[in-house]
Specification:
Rossmann fold; seven-stranded parallel β-sheet; 7 strands
Length: 250
C-alpha cells in the first residue's frame, strides 16, 4: 500500500487507460477522484468496481470553466487532494485543405481538451499543493508530442508537445516547493482510439514501427502511474517516461 493517504484526481477516467490508472492507484492504497465527461454508465461501473476508495465527478473539459470547477469540487468533496493525473485527451483529424473554420475548430477543441484543461487544473493543483505541503502532477503526453505527427492530426501532436513542456516548466519552477511533475509518453496503447485507427488504416501501419511488435496494454500504463506516485519517486521530477516499445528512441 505504497500510496496510502494519497487522494488523486484522474481525468478521462472512463477510457481504457483512465480505468487502468484508477484501478492501479487504488490497489496501491490511494483514494481516487475519477472525472468523466458524458459516459455516466461507464463512470458508475468504474465506481462499483473501485468501491469506497473512489468517487466520480462529471466535467466537460471542452468548457474553459470546467477544469477549475472540477478541481474545486474535488477539494470540496475530499478536503485534501495530493495528486493530479491529466489523462483526458482526444484525437481529431482535419486536413490542411479543409475550410479554415473547420481547421480552426478542430485545433481549438484539441488544444482545449488536451492542453488548456490540463493547464488550468495544474494551476489549481499548484495553489492547493502549496497549502498542504506539496503534491505531484502526472501528465499523459504521447510519442506524437516528441517526434511529430501525421499532417491530418497535427493538432494532437502539438497539444501533447505543449503538455511535455508544461511538465518540465512545473518541475523546474515548483520542485523546490515539494510540487513535482512528470509525464508519460506512450506510443500506441490498446484503446478504442487505437482500434479505430487499425480499422481504418490496418494493423501493419500501427505496429510496423514498433520493435517489440505489439501495442502497450492499458494496465502497463496504470502500473507506471501508480509507481510514479510513490513518495520515494520524487527524483522522477521533470522526467518524460517513454512507453513506446522502442518505436521512438532519444
Amino acid at each position: 500500500m505504497k500510496l496510502s493517504g494519497q487522494t488523486i484526481l484522474v481525468t478521462g477516467a472512463t477510457g481504457a487507460i483512465g480505468q487502468a490508472i484508477c484501478r492501479a492507484l487504488v490497489v496501491e492504497g490511494a483514494r481516487v477522484v475519477a472525472q468523466y465527461g458524458r459516459n455516466r454508465g461507464a463512470a458508475d461501473a468504474l465506481l462499483a468496481d473501485l468501491g469506497q476508495a473512489a468517487r466520480i465527478l462529471p466535467a466537460d473539459l471542452s468548457d474553459p470553466e470546467a477544469p477549475t470547477a472540477l478541481w474545486q469540487a474535488a477539494v470540496a468533496a475530499e478536503g485534501r487532494v495530493t495528486g493530479l493525473v491529466n489523462n483526458a485527451g482526444i484525437r481529431s483529424e482535419v486536413p490542411v485543405n479543409a475550410p479554415l473554420a473547420d481547421w480552426q475548430r478542430v485545433w481549438a477543441r484539441e488544444m482545449q481538451v488536451n492542453f488548456l484543461a490540463a493547464v488550468d487544473l495544474t494551476r489549481a493543483a499548484i495553489l492547493h499543493f502549496r497549502q498542504i505541503g506539496g503534491g505531484r502532477i502526472l501528465n499523459m503526453a504521447s510519442r506524437a508530442g516528441q517526434r511529430g505527427y501525421a499532417s491530418n492530426a497535427m493538432a494532437y501532436g502539438a497539444s501533447k508537445a505543449a503538455l511535455i513542456n508544461l511538465t518540465k516548466s512545473v518541475a523546474q519552477s515548483h520542485g523546490a516547493e515539494g510540487i513535482t511533475a512528470l509525464a508519460l509518453a506512450p506510443g500506441w496503447v490498446r484503446t478504442d482510439m487505437a482500434e479505430d485507427f487499425i480499422a481504418r488504416h490496418g494493423a501493419a501501419v500501427a505496429l510496423g514501427g514498433i520493435p517489440v511488435g505489439r501495442m502497450a496494454e492499458p494496465d502497463e500504463i496504470g502500473e507506471l502511474v501508480a509507481f510514479a506516485f510513490r513518495p520515494a519517486q520524487a527524483s522522477l521530477n521533470g522526467a518524460v517516461l517513454d512507453v513506446n516499445g522502442g518505436s521512438y528512441l532519444r
